[in-house]
Amino acid sequence: MIYKFRRDWKVITISVLSILSLWGVFFYIALFGNAPVGGLIAIGAIFLLVTATGLRTPRYVYVEKEQIIIKFYLGSKVLSDIASVHSITMRELAHSIRLIGNGGFFGYTGWYFKRMFGFYYMSVVNLNELALVTLTNGKQYVINYPQELLKIDN
After folding, report:
1. Domain, as residue range, for 42
2. Nearest-10 Cα torsion for 63, 68, 73, 75
């Protein structure tokens, strides 16, 4: 079954302000500046990075009996061989170290580390309905997951 999650206000605010700032800089340079070619290339690279980040944020989670599919705007991630799925709160994830990824721009995605959990990959659009998915190979993912399914499973 497909489950969609609403982006929280922090994600929306960070994303909108970042995009407006980027467009403002672009139009300022295009209208009033004599930007060198290197500056235009840098702006183009930033636009590509923003687009790639937006396309790799989760659209919805598809939960099946044997696997969970995280569908992005571009591509998907299949979590199979699931050992456990547990509810987790943002308080438990507090003070995690972001190794690579973003913390609020279109969502929260990337690799993180916390001593209690070890390394984990987080791909969420809000910080309310979180679950820690552990695979049989030991890899861990923090995703948005319907809390009503966790109550049924436990």
Report:
1. 1-154
2. -140
- Taking the C-alpha atoms of residue 118 and residue 141, their distance in angstroms, rounded to an integer, is 11
Buried b (16+ CB within 10 A) or exposed e, 22-57: eeeebeeeeeeeeeeeeeeeebeeeeeebeebbebb
Contact of 93 with 82, CB cutoff 8 Å: no
Residue 44: phi, psi to the nearest 5?
Answer: -60, -40
**Per-residue pLDDT tens for 71-124?**
999 999 999 999 999 999 989 999 999 999 888 888 899 999 999 989 999 999
The number of domains in the chain is 1
**DSSP 8-state symbol, 94:** T
